[in-house]
Amino acid sequence: MIEIGISGYDNHVQYKEKQEEVRKMPKGKRKLVKCIVCGEIFDSELDTCPVCGVGREYFIPYDEEDIRFSKDTEETFVILGNGAAGISAAEAIRERNDTCSILMISREAEYSYNRPMLTKSLSSLISAQEILMHQPEWYEENHITNLLNSEVTKLDTSNKTIELKDGRRIAYDKCIYALGAECFVPPIKGSDKPEVIAIRNLEDVKKARALGSSARKAVVIGGGVLGLEAAWELSKLCEVTVLEVADKLMVRQLDDKAGEVLGELIKKAGVKFRVNASITEITGEEKVTGVALRDGEVYEADLVIISCGIRGNVELARESGITVQKAIAVNEKMETNAEGIYACGDCAEYRGANYAVWSQAVQMGKTAGANAAGDTVEYEPETPALSFEGMKTALFAGGDNGKNPELEYQTLEYSNLEDGNYEKYYFHNNKLVGAILIGDTRKMVKVTEGLNVGCSLNYVRNNVIHP
Ligand SMILES: Cc1cc2nc3c(=O)[nH]c(=O)nc-3n(C[C@H](O)[C@H](O)[C@H](O)COP(=O)(O)OP(=O)(O)OC[C@H]3O[C@@H](n4cnc5c(N)ncnc54)[C@H](O)[C@@H]3O)c2cc1C
């Protein structure tokens, strides 16, 4: 099972101090690693991943970016949003330009923080301080200004200005649009009640934990990875049932068998779930009392968490004339069709794909920042993968697990269900294209490498399943 935490450090403050210390080391002296669970790149001296908290066994060596481009200017770079994409863009700009002004704007109250930790530590997270990506001093040292609690309401591409809710207008030379996404809340009757929460930011977590601590029962609507993470954390506070409209859990990432295996493990962990759950209403007059299904069944609940996917924050872009498809259309440099405006992260779409995962938000942000600063950097998307830790098990799913009806796949399967272990590998034209690990996920490094190079069926049989 993946251990999540800050092993080797007494507390979060000590761990953050270590993080800052290694960050200040001169370039070239640092040895970097990449976490294959979330894709974060950081110094090899850290024992745990600063984003998702897993240990060294999930790190692979990573060559430090060799940045040769440098151009100091008096330009103003305005970054809309301070999530993974926004902060990565700010870093990339400052790495290339010492003198420009960088302004980051966010409607949240906190400096950039590790969003994936919200559901992973829902039952224990106390303050933003524990999950900040940089301490406030870092922004001072790098001359990066943050406008927090500030909502952007308009983007005027002809006059190169943005407007804030309080009426302020700010001019930019280059603008990075990194407004991320919001949770999608399906139009279910009763979903506007105060005890119904969709988790996207720290405030949502605080609310969910406060309600969960006094709740007797909670329902999580949505059996995807974030729903399951939230359910597991909430189960430490009250009784939880997960309701999933599809016929299996994690339907986008798993195949039928893996969905069943996961279901059995979840039952063993003591969390109830129901698939094929067609929800008609969240019941209750003043307060939530339960969730009603089309077949008449009602699940009692004092708290309902909605985890039904996301919708990119694209409206300001659309209104300003920027091309929006599923999300904001960008090219390999993260340029939109509006001059001087780059988009990245959960609100952006590259070649029809809107990955909406941390590692890609970081990569897109770095690419946008580098190109906005005048460098030439191309975005290279990676094989999408996710991992889950909770329900007394762990899971990794990467690539295409038989989801394309037009392709013929060969598969390899290995299961030891008594020990809760299951492995499945998908091949197309004798190349590894997808993999699922449940239980013991320590092979994740090997499997990720195998997916990246498209290794053969025989190689997986001889070197991965039976090393
Ligand atoms: C609970 C949770 C758990 C997750 N776990 C994982 C995981 O385990 N692994 C993984 O790969 N991914 C995970 N993700 C997804 C990952 O966190 C996102 O892909 C990533 O954070 C996207 O970064 P971003 O910068 O594009 O957007 P965001 O992080 O959403 O940042 C956008 C920022 O813009 C601000 N904003 C929006 N509109 C405005 C406006 N009009 N004015 C001013 N500010 C505005 C928002 O408040 C926000 O601060 C998780 C997401 C959530 C919500």
UniProtKB/TrEMBL annotation:
<keyword id="KW-0285">Flavoprotein</keyword>
<dbReference type="InterPro" id="IPR050260">
    <property type="entry name" value="FAD-bd_OxRdtase"/>
</dbReference>
<dbReference type="InterPro" id="IPR016156">
    <property type="entry name" value="FAD/NAD-linked_Rdtase_dimer_sf"/>
</dbReference>
<feature type="domain" description="Rubredoxin-like">
    <location>
        <begin position="30"/>
        <end position="62"/>
    </location>
</feature>
<dbReference type="Pfam" id="PF18267">
    <property type="entry name" value="Rubredoxin_C"/>
</dbReference>
<dbReference type="InterPro" id="IPR036188">
    <property type="entry name" value="FAD/NAD-bd_sf"/>
</dbReference>
<dbReference type="Pfam" id="PF07992">
    <property type="entry name" value="Pyr_redox_2"/>
</dbReference>
<protein>
    <submittedName>
        <fullName>Pyridine nucleotide-disulphide oxidoreductase</fullName>
    </submittedName>
</protein>
<dbReference type="InterPro" id="IPR024934">
    <property type="entry name" value="Rubredoxin-like_dom"/>
</dbReference>
<dbReference type="InterPro" id="IPR041575">
    <property type="entry name" value="Rubredoxin_C"/>
</dbReference>
<keyword id="KW-0274">FAD</keyword>
<dbReference type="InterPro" id="IPR023753">
    <property type="entry name" value="FAD/NAD-binding_dom"/>
</dbReference>
<dbReference type="GO" id="GO:0016491">
    <property type="term" value="F:oxidoreductase activity"/>
</dbReference>
<dbReference type="GO" id="GO:0005506">
    <property type="term" value="F:iron ion binding"/>
</dbReference>
